[in-house]
Amino acid sequence: MSSISGQLSSIRFSGKKQSSSSAEVRLVLLGKTGSGKSSTANSILGSNVFDSKVSSSSVTQQCHRVSGEFHGRNITLLDTPGLLDTQQTLQEVQKELRKSISLLYPGPHAFLLVIQIGRFTQEEKDVVRQIKQAMGAYAFSFSVVVFTHGDLLEKGTSVKQSLIDGCKDLADLVAGCGGRYCVFNNKSSKNKDQMSEVLALVDSMMLENGGIWYSSKMLKDAEEELAKEQQEERRLMDKNVALLEKKQEAVIKELYGKQLEMVQLKSKMEMEELKKKIQLEKKKEEKLSREREEAFRREMEDYVKKEKDTKTQEMVRLMEKRIGEEEEKMNALQEKLDKVTKMLKDQEEQEDKIRRAMQKNIQKEREENEKKEREKEFQQIQKEQPSRQREKMRRDTLQRDLDKLTLSLKDQSMKEEDRKRQMEVLIRREREEKQRERDIQMENMKTEKRRTLALQQELKSIRRKVEQQKETNENLKRQLEENLRMDREKCIIEMSALKKQYDKKPCTETIKKRSAEKHSTLTAVTGFAQEMGLLGLNAALETVGAPCCIL
């Protein structure tokens, strides 16, 4: 009921709201043939306006609209043809309903579902299902169940006790109509009371529905929904037909495949037997030829021993004769082998012909089966259109349930496969990313290794240069020390000579000053040599790109 209320709230704009006690009430009578719709309409209007009589065929062939008045309210009543006539299809029912809405513009306030008191038969269940399919599920929100032939009820019993409580389908129908039902006795004189009860139910229903009526838009929505369902049914039917054709084709292929395997197996066995016979004959001939050759060799040896000198020409002749006989036998054996080879080729050609003939038969039988299926389907449609529709609906309902379950299982398996594929993709991506990271790390390590090797080589060259510089410095130092020593010796010699010549103070000061100048010169030269060595070492470190220097 909550879903119906939601649908009604979404389509309230389709009709103008009226008060629950509108001055005009538009009603439509629905029901199967012979349920008493016309009699009920006459009872509501209080006059015999509609033709009512007991008949197995529908008395009302087209929609018939009549207006009347009850307690100052205009009652417009529309009687419809029986909805379960053998000629009626869902499209024809929808056409009549569309006509009823146009005749009761802007739309009926209520549908009176007329059901005869008695056993709620399968035909009446089909009527309810047909109405629901043609008008939509929310059509029962605008419906009231009217039970006719109330005089058939036993005294002291009600419809609820005798019918509704004892039949689940009928109870579901009444519950779908919001529990709205009433009993009509068309033979009773209390028509006004019955009519008051019907109007009270219609007023309460209009109050629940917010004063709207069943509009053409609601019917259009129901038609679109029905078209979708029929399209889905056709698709499922085509799918089932295709599956049956595939199964039939597979059975035919399997049958002919087995026959072909039997023929091939038989021919293979015959060929193997022939090969074995040929091999046996060949072995026998080879054995005989070896025996003959051995016998001939022994004879020749004996003959040579006995008549070595006298019969050489006769022996040669006999050898040539024997060789000729052997060649003739080998040629005969070759001819037999050629015949067997030809026979095998003929056998293969025969198998190819049989295979092509089987394929042609399969194609021919498939076309004949398809033609027969189409003819059967057409004849069945021609002969059993209405009953076929009902049977099809019941069968398709079960098929839809099965297909829904199958689809749900397929969807679940597809989702599982999708999740599995996603996990595989994620795992593969993670592996690729890790592999890329490892490759980058390996590349970086190789680069660092190359740089380290280059630095080591450069350090080795720097060390060599430093050692060379040290050697150069040591050589310079030795030379300077040697020069200094020589200068000192000269100074000492000169000083001793000067002391001898001059023994005065000014001379001593002059000597000291000269020796100090020489010492300062030696210190400057040594510092210059050390500074030049440090400069060379720092220049080498700069070429390497080292972040340090030597001060």
TrEMBL record:
Family note: Belongs to the TRAFAC class TrmE-Era-EngA-EngB-Septin-like GTPase superfamily. AIG1/Toc34/Toc159-like paraseptin GTPase family. IAN subfamily.
Organism: Eleginops maclovinus
The keyword GTP-binding is annotated on this UniProt entry: yes
InterPro entries linked: G_AIG1 (IPR006703), GIMA/IAN/Toc (IPR045058), P-loop_NTPase (IPR027417)
Name used for this protein in its record: AIG1-type G domain-containing protein
PROSITE patterns tied to this protein: G_AIG1
Ranges of compositional bias, category Basic and acidic residues: 363-378, 385-404
Superkingdom of origin organism: Eukaryota
